[in-house]
Amino acid sequence: MSYADYEGGDYAGSEDQDLPYYFEYVKPTEFGEAYYQNPKYFNQATNSYVAYYATPEEKAQNKLTFGPGVLADSRLRKQLGMKTIKEGDTVPAMLIDDMAVQRWLDAVRDAETLRGQSPTRLPVAEMVYQMGLSGVKKFDEMLSAIDPETIREKALDSRWARQTPARAEAVARRLKEAAELEQPRPMRNPRDYNLYDTLLELVDSVRDRLGLPF
């Protein structure tokens, strides 16, 4: 399932960059091509996702996942009309993909409570998608920082970065790049202006318009 499958559809009312960001960065990280080739995670014959334990810790807690980070919790069981879900159970890919997209849009809305409509809301939403809003709220130093490099450093100074270093580094880099877009442009020093040259250009322009000789 790609962005083209959603463009102009039920999610057309979302912000322009919300879904492209999800399909470019979030979904490939959560469920890349290698997963689709592995029958432990995806059944190609039936085009369906397979319930699996993402980590040993989640197996100990009996927390199953489908596809791109969709937890097999009570909410999902209710939506699917299933009383129980066990490892190896399958669900049609279209259903899980739709739920993953909705989960992403929910994450964006949660991120907006922290960052408003600023460019940093999407990298923050990516963090929310992975660890929940309550988890991201613990990054108080990152959220309160203004300097882009400080924001990146504070994001990486965390248990999250130690647990998933490659992903954290990528998200922190996008967070820094987004923060740089929020920085005010420096005002030009008046000393950089050459008033004499500016006046000459203005006089020449007036002469051209009036057809006056030089």
Structural Rg: 25 Å
Question: DSSP helix count?
Answer: 11
Provide the succession of SSEs: HHEEHEEHEHHHHHHH
Structural class: mainly alpha
Overall spatial form = elongated
What strand order characterises the main sheet?
A: 1-2-5
Main sheet: strands, sense, barrel = 3 strands, antiparallel
State the end-to-end CA separation: 67 Å
| Overall strand count | 5
- Percent in helix: 55-70%
Provide the low-confidence segments as ranges. 1-14
Mean pLDDT across residues = 85
Description:
Helices cover 57% and strands 6% of the residues. By secondary structure, the chain is mainly α. A hairpin with a 3-residue loop joins strand 3 and strand 4. Helix 8 (148-156) packs antiparallel against helix 10 (165-182).
Relevant terms:
11 helices, 3-stranded antiparallel β-sheet, disordered N terminus, 214 residues, 5 strands, single chain, 6% strand, elongated, mainly alpha
